[in-house]
Write a structure and sequence with these properties.
It is built from five helices and no strands. The protein is an all-alpha fold and 124 residues long. Helix 1 runs antiparallel to helix 5. The N and C termini lie close together (10 Å).
Length: 124
């Protein structure tokens, strides 16, 4: 059951990251006429969040499959990834979730669920 929880949390994080990467061009375009510098900053931030979320998911999956469930190294890595997801959820809750955009409102929930599954998967 631990493996299922860990892999599900990892998959959610990875897929939510891909969900950030794929629409980047459209998201930036939705800001309308903004300066070239602001366009670059928004693009950079949107891509980095997507990459971070995907990386956290991949890292958890790799450590689970290569090191093994319940191993001390796995527990440390997975809990560190979960902590990062919880921090990202907090930032999302204080910023993007306060907009009228539904995916942005869901972002802190998705991140917290992925982190919670990861933590649950480290409990024996």
């Amino acid at each position: 059951m631990q493996s299922v929880l860990l892999n599900t949390g990892a998959a959610i994080s990875f897929l939510w990251g891909l969900g950030h990467l794929m629409p980047t061009r459209n998201v930036v375009a939705d800001f309308g006429k903004i300066s070239a510098d602001n366009r670059k900053i928004i693009t950079m931030e949107w891509i980095l969040e997507g990459l971070t979320l995907s990386f956290l998911g991949v890292l958890v999956a790799l450590v689970v499959h290569l090191v093994g469930v319940g191993q001390p190294a796995t527990v440390i890595v997975v809990r560190a990834c979960a902590a990062m997801l919880f921090l990202m959820a907090g930032v999302s809750a204080a910023t993007g979730a306060r907009t009228s955009v539904l995916p942005m409102k869901l972002c802190p929930i998705v991140k917290a669920v992925a982190a919670g599954l990861m933590i649950a998967g480290t409990l024996s």
